[in-house]
Write a structure and sequence with these properties.
Oligomer: single chain
Number of strands: 12
Shape: elongated
Structural class: alpha+beta
Helix content: 10-25%
CATH class of the largest domain: Alpha Beta
Radius of gyration: 17 Å
CATH superfamily of the largest domain: Probable tRNA modification gtpase trme, domain 1
Length: about 200
């Protein structure tokens, strides 16, 4: 597990903002999670099937996800197909991959996880992301590698809860951008959590 302090304190100090108050259920809730475990596994063009088998067997997944898809195992960890030759493992370590088969890379400190939920969450995100977040188009478990203010981000969808994996170097500015957009709804920032990614 990545052991690091919260990095978004300046952009997301805990409290209520805009029209949100402690007496109301806020339309939006932000929370940083500091226990992100993220590994990238890459295959060579001729070893895709071999790497898929290793990932499925090591992680206890029922199958390998298709491109831009994700699958959960019984422990709530995710296997995400982010590119034709690349997968992200969220919440667990990768299998031992031989150099002739591919390569692995620990990205745990390269991304910041920001959770967002509440009745206005999808509306806010739709103002920044070119993604259709209607329930019929974005079911629980859906994953998007997309753009937020010209920056590549990963969006994980779990019913009305969303998790953004933001590049560490841009995380503060992106969080500030989201908060500026959230003021019209009112929002709450919860203290950072050391728990892992919440899944359905």
């Amino acid at each position: 597990m990545a052991n690091r302090p919260a990095l978004l304190n300046t952009a997301l100090p805990p409290g209520f903002y805009g029209r949100a108050t402690a007496n109301d259920y806020p339309p939006l809730v932000f929370q940083e999670r500091t226990a992100l475990v993220l590994h990238q596994v890459a295959a060579w063009p001729n070893t895709v099937e071999s790497i898929e088998r290793q990932l499925v067997n090591k992680g206890g997944y029922s199958a390998a996800p298709g491109f831009s898809g994700a699958i959960l195992n019984s422990s709530g960890h995710r296997l995400v197909r982010v590119e034709p030759l690349k997968w992200w493992l969220i919440g667990q370590a990768p299998p031992v991959v031989q150099p002739d088969d591919g390569a692995t890379l620990d990205l745990s400190h390269a991304r910041i996880q920001l959770d967002l939920h509440g009745p206005a969450a999808a509306e806010l995100l739709n103002r920044f992301l070119p993604v259709d977040l209607r329930p019929s188009r974005c079911p629980a478990g859906q994953v998007y590698m997309t753009q937020l203010h010209h920056t590549s981000v990963l969006l994980l969808c779990d019913d009305a809860r969303y998790s953004l994996l933001l590049p560490t170097s841009f995380a503060v500015s992106l969080a500030e951008l989201l908060c500026d957009g959230a003021r019209q709804f009112g929002y709450q920032v919860l203290p950072p959590s050391e728990s892992e990614l919440q899944t359905t």
